[in-house]
Design goal:
heterodimer; A: alpha+beta; Four Helix Bundle (Hemerythrin (Met), subunit A); Alpha-Beta Plaits; 5 domains; six-stranded mixed β-sheet; 23 helices; elongated; B: mainly beta; OB fold (Dihydrolipoamide Acetyltransferase, E2P); five-stranded mixed β-sheet; 3 helices; globular
Chain lengths: 698, 151
């Protein structure tokens, strides 16, 4: 069956289930008795298992199966949720995520079996069900290993009991002559396996792809009818090596063990000793297989890392609400109607009526295109939740790792951002949260000593502000020690003593965003290598946004990220400076004022105006942009008041043209513009107008 | 086109004039040649970038090769053209030239390496081509577009 067409759906749904598992597990950790959560977890695990099975991802299926077993027992009230259990389950989730990312890269789940996790799960299951006490488990394992393995091995090789008929012996001989080997194989299936015959069928299928099965015990009919216990034996003729055959069989899920050896016709009736020594060979063989398996998993890990750069097999997609699509469809039909209206006007002769009808149609068309733009943009919008929902888990892990108690509060997850922005914003946010957890928050004892609540708080808040989306990462930790930053900067030679003396607090904090600047004395696992904040800054600027930091010593620090809501089309105010036209994004404009020359005051020899109680600095745009000065100076200035967060500035311009919807285009990488110009747009008459990035002006 | 140039075993160059000198631009880099049109100034840009133009809905930065070479300002005439260079995938740059003359095919044997005594412009050149009695300076497009000005 060709399942590749379902791959995208599988990946999407698996992501959803994993996410739900992760968040529900977090709840479960704090409320171990929450029945609803347990049910939810069980459902998610169950669907995951089913989907993985359908898609043929055996390893993934096996792992989810074992996890599901544990959930099932918890649901039935047979065992309790423990901290250890949650840890193991989280490990399992990580393993599943690794599978998923492998699948996403290469449509293959990879070769890692995560035996350790499966073992831990089963141990927990046994302990939880009271079958074994915890102390007994390792002991039992030890005794098993100590007890003479050769004996168990040889008794486990049940295929030795197969009585070969004459013609079968001849077949084996003949096979040996043409370079094929005859292997005896005994397959053990897991005790909990429900569809034993199905497993056996898969084993047979695997074997038949390698060679020919000439005999089985019990016979095939019985195996099909499930008339066997937990093991069955076959004789296989193949050219493949023992290891390869064994590997193939082990790949079938729910196979517990495989015993395999060459069938030696001469030794059929030989003494026990021989089989003993053979069994030791077998033992060695198995060890070598094991090491080979480790090697192969290592190499596959290498493969995976090299695959990272390759193009993922799955396209990027957005799930769209059907309602949004309906709206789009409606708008397109309206667009067609509008076009038809224009066509009929142009073909009709009545010139008098033409004029008004034409304008009417244009207005109609304008309305439709505006709506269409809005709707298309909405389709691209994704709630920020899809990024933030993995953070609670991360903070939980960090809390354990750093041994600090902390709590993450997220608000505004429903705030929507463009899909491309959402894809990129995850890493920077993660950096900031790690910073907050590692550097921001003090240790618990320090907090108590400073009269703060023992548990540290980290806040992640998202909200919309005009044409921007603002994301704040805040902590109630120690804050940034400005003096320490200064000292560090002096030491590394980033600034001179004079600079240090004259720097404002904000300027000092901005030093943190310089490359390779870290104030942490000790480099930890989590952060402190100084590659953090400048990477964050570069990334966010690449998205057309900016970042700033605020801090109060002893009370915590806040990082504020400002991102553009949309990337392609914006509403802008067109203004004139001399003979040049510029666009100012409407989202950052507060008001437009008429200011008379007499109202301009001077503070620190800079021009300011006093507008309804607030002092606003004036920016002469013509000076900033080197526009040729006008001859006559009028008494009244037109000032556009722009805002960036809570900071305001007044841009002095010559003329207002009006509001317009503009398409943002890049001006290319070769031309250098000090970031004042955010892009360019083409006006109705084909002329190019530059778009001002007001954030760099304020 | 490629097959064609293989047959005649040489490279094709567009010959342009800057003042009295002739320059050759490898035809593989040339996307388009357009007439002089209105250029929108970009503030704070490098002085040799005249601004940006709108070429069928695309915004393309335009540089003055004269200013980059340290020659006097362009004298815009009816013959002035903007040559649109597509250097690497996606990004295009326009360069202003006084006149576009012809397309010539130069064989390897007709191209001589430049000697460094020719002055500070030499970094922008790949070699000198001989075509009949004319000498054509062959532009090294990547250094013209990317490199900083000479001095």
């Amino acid at each position: 069956m060709d399942i590749s067409q379902y791959l995208e759906i599988f990946i999407d749904e698996t992501k959803e289930h994993l996410q739900s598992l992760s968040s529900q597990l977090l709840i479960l950790e704090t409320e171990p008795e929450n029945v609803e959560t347990i049910n939810e977890i069980f459902r998610a695990a169950h669907s995951l298992k089913g989907m993985a099975g359908t898609m043929g991802y055996k390893r993934m299926q096996r792992l989810t199966h074992d996890m599901e077993n544990v959930f099932s027992e918890i649901r039935n009230g047979n065992m309790k949720v423990t901290a250890n259990l949650v840890d193991v389950l989280f490990k399992g989730l990580d393993a599943l995520e690794t599978y998923l990312s492998n699948i996403q890269e290469s449509a293959d789940e990879g070769t890692n079996d995560y035996e350790d996790i499966i073992k831990q799960l089963n141990t927990i299951l046994n302990v939880g069900l009271g079958k074994v006490t915890e102390t007994e488990v390792p002991k039992a394992e030890v005794t098993k290993i100590v007890s003479d393995p050769t004996v168990t091995e040889s008794t486990q090789m049940k295929f030795k009991n197969i009585k070969l008929l004459d013609y079968e012996k001849r077949a084996i001989q003949k096979a040996n002559e043409i370079g094929m080997n005859a292997y005896g194989i005994t397959v053990y299936i897991q005790e909990y396996c429900i569809l034993k015959s199905a497993r056996a069928f898969l084993v047979f299928k695997a074997l038949e792809s390698l060679g020919e099965v000439i005999k089985s015990l019990p016979d095939t009919q019985d195996i099909e009818d499930e008339k066997f216990d937990l093991d069955f034996s076959v004789i296989l003729l193949t050219k493949e090596s023992l290891d390869k055959v064994k590997e193939e069989v082990m790949r079938v899920s729910e196979v517990k063990n495989v015993m395999i050896d060459k069938v030696d016709l001469t030794s059929e009736d030989d003494s026990n000793e021989e089989s003993d020594s053979k069994a030791t060979d077998e033992q060695e063989m198995e060890q070598s297989t094991a090491s080979a398996a480790v090697k192969s998993s290592n190499s596959s890990a290498n493969n995976n890392s090299s695959k990272q750069t390759a193009k993922p097999v799955v396209n990027r997609s957005v799930r769209v609400d059907i309602e949004k699509l309906d709206i789009l469809m409606n708008l397109v039909s309206e667009l067609i109607i509008a076009k038809n209206g224009l066509v009929s006007i142009s073909t009709s002769d009545n010139s008098n009526k033409n004029e008004s009808g034409f304008n009417e149609q244009i207005e109609y068309l304008e309305r439709v295109t505006t709506n269409l733009h809005e709707s298309v943009m909405k389709v691209r919008m994704v709630p920020i939740e899809s990024v933030t929902n993995r953070f609670p888990r991360m903070i939980r892990d960090l809390s354990k790792k750093l041994n600090k108690k902390m709590e993450l509060y997220i608000s505004g997850e429903e705030t929507e951002l463009d899909r491309t922005v959402i894809d990129e914003i995850g890493d920077p946010l993660m950096h900031l949260l790690r910073n907050a957890a590692d550097h921001g928050l003090e240790s618990n004892s320090e907090r108590v000593a400073n009269d703060k609540p023992e548990v540290g708080s980290i806040y992640l808040e998202a909200y919309q502000d005009g044409n921007n989306v603002v994301i704040e990462v805040r902590d109630d930790g120690a804050g940034i020690n400005v003096e320490k930053v200064k000292k560090k900067a002096l030491k590394t030679g980033s600034i001179t003593q004079e600079q240090a003396d004259s720097m404002s607090e904000k300027e000092v904090i901005d030093l943190l965003f310089r490359p390779s600047f870290s104030t942490a004395e000790v480099i930890s696992d989590v952060s402190g290598r100084g590659v953090g904040l400048d990477v964050v800054k570069t990334k966010i600027e690449a998205l057309g946004g900016d970042i700033e930091a605020k801090t109060k010593l002893g009370e915590g620090s806040t990082f504020i990220i400002r991102l553009p809501l949309t990337l392609a089309i914006i509403q802008a105010l067109m203004v004139e400076l001399g003979s040049e036209k510029y666009a100012i994004p409407l989202g950052s404009i507060q008001t437009i004022e008429d200011v008379s020359q007499a109202d301009i005051k001077y503070v620190h020899s800079k021009e300011v105006i006093n507008l309804r109680g607030s002092v606003i600095p004036l920016i002469r745009l013509d000076k900033v942009l080197d526009v040729e000065e006008k001859q006559e100076q009028s008494d009244n200035l037109t000032v556009v008041i722009i805002a960036k967060g809570d900071r305001l500035a007044g841009l002095v311009i010559d003329n207002l043209i009006g509001q317009q919807e503009i398409v943002i285009k890049s001006i290319g990488k070769y031309i250098n513009n000090n970031k004042i110009i955010g892009g360019a747009t083409i006006l109705g008459d084909g002329e190019v107008a530059l778009i001002l990035d007001v954030n760099t002006l304020v | 086109m490629e097959a064609n140039s293989n047959i005649i075993d040489g490279k094709q160059y567009i010959v342009v004039k800057l003042g009295n000198e002739q320059y050759g631009i490898d035809i593989n880099f040339v996307d388009n040649i357009v007439r002089m049109q209105r250029i929108t100034r970009v503030p704070k840009a490098q002085h040799y970038f005249k601004g940006v133009i709108n070429l069928r809905g695309e915004i393309i930065p335009v540089m003055s090769i004269r200013l980059k070479f340290g020659l006097e300002e362009d004298n815009i005439t009816n013959a002035t053209r903007i040559i649109i260079i597509k250097f690497d995938a996606g990004s295009a740059v326009g360069i202003i030239v006084d006149e576009v003359k012809e397309v010539v095919t130069l064989e390897e044997s007709n191209i001589s390496k430049i000697n460094s005594e020719l002055g500070d412009k030499s970094g922008f050149l790949n070699g000198i081509g001989k075509h009949g009695d004319d000498l054509i300076s062959l532009l090294n497009i990547s250094s013209v577009i990317i490199e900083k000005e000479s001095n």
